[in-house]
Amino acid sequence: MGVSLQGSSTEAVIEARRVHNEKLTGRATQPRATWFPLVVMALLLALPLLQFTGNYNYVLHLVLFTASYVSMSAGWNILGGFAGYISLGHAVFFAIGGYFAGMICARYGISTILLAPVAGLVAAAFGYVIGLITLKVRGPSFIISSIALLMIARILFDHWTFIGGSNGLSLPGNDLPVQWGKIPYYYAFLVIAAVTVWASYKIKHSKFGLGLRAIAKDEIKAESAGIDTRFYKVLAFALSAFFVGMTGAVWGEYMTYLRPNIFLIILVSANLVLMCILGGKGTIAGPVIGAVLIVAFNELFAATLGASEFNILATGLVMTLGLMFFPLGVVGTLARKGKLPRILNWD
Q: Would the CA dihedral through 57, 61, 63, 64 be positive or negative?
């Protein structure tokens, strides 16, 4: 009798493993809908044509605002999602990119759209140096150090008279009519977002990306396996800073002014974390889905509840419910359950 029960138990375990392996194989072989993001991009590129039929500036603003957060959250995902290091100080690189390009724009009239890649490189250089210092610690200590970085930067920018201090400085707007004034920034943010998502995909599927994911799983084992964890982490920090800095560069001119309380607030960094967690940290589509959802919910609640505490409360409740039903984020949870739609399978 005992032998019979043991045999049936062994068979049940083997069957369960077989079913599990089949599910994993199914997820791995599920065809990617690479056409979907291309179709979405084509539609978004054509969206400004609506301006010929009326004034759709509000729609354009929502799309470019979402695209700016897509690029920043996808950039943050390189460090926070792939490597597993949660940073709440990435608003610093948002400010570095914005101020670097904005100061040149204010003094020499060069558009920040042209300066965005250079601003990104400057932010990446700062990210590399800061990473060398802050990435010596892990876990909660790193999170605290990233918050400290944001606070130090805020004090510095508030008292730096050369860049206008806490009052900031104004930037020249473009000479286009109001109906078309947003178009250059609209396309700039779309391109930056598309490049960032594409770059994150390439990084994830590279040897470097594999090393980052190994660090996220177990940094000690990754180091024992021969991975230069320190270099990998610092490079990931610099790359994430690059994309956030590029976005900040264009955002400054779009707003037509620079001010520390626009760039150096923890809400910007917190949004990047929340977007990745809600959408699916460590995935390619996750930051995109998270950015779209959070911007949409914020806009919906602001329109219906106004600028009050109820708006914040409603957004918080949605986030809580979302993480209760999707603990690994929308993309991560659906992928784990084998229910991820093809159109969201970008990994």
A: positive
DSSP 258: E
**pLDDT band at 307; cut points 50, 70, 90:** low
Q: Read off the DSSP letter of residue 174.
A: P
* Region 133-148 average pLDDT: 92
Summarised one tens digit per residue, pLDDT across range 79-124 is: 999 999 999 999 999 999 999 999 999 999 999 999 999 999 999 9
Tokens 């990104």, residue located: 120
What is the Cα–Cα distance from 23 to 17, expressed in whole angstroms? 10
Query: What pLDDT is attached to residue 34?
Result: 74
Q: By the 8 A CB rule, do 345 and 34 touch?
A: no
Q: CB 342: neighbour CB atoms within 10 A?
A: 13
Closest to 117 in 3D by CA, of 235, 234, 247: 247
pLDDT of residue 24: 47
* Rg of the chain in Å (alpha carbons): 22
Q: CA 15 to CA 18: how far, in whole Å?
A: 5
pLDDT tens by residue, 22-73? 554 454 445 667 788 889 999 999 999 999 998 999 999 999 999 999 999 9
**Range 264-287 average pLDDT:** 93
SS3 (DSSP) at 169:
strand
SS3 170: strand
Q: What angle do CA 19, 23, 27 make, to 5 degrees?
A: 170
| Predicted confidence band of residue 3 (pLDDT cuts 50, 70, 90) | very low
Contact 15, 324 (CB under 8 A): no
- Neighbour-count burial of 34, counting CB atoms closer than 10 A to its CB (0-12 exposed, 13-18 middle, 19+ buried): exposed
Rounded to an integer, what distance in angstroms lies between the CA atom of residue 283 and that of residue 197?
A: 10
What's the number of CA atoms in the CB half-sphere (13 Å) around residue 111? Answer: 9
Q: Dihedral sign, CA of 148, 96, 285, 272?
A: positive
Q: Residues 246, 112: contact at Cβ < 8 Å? A: no
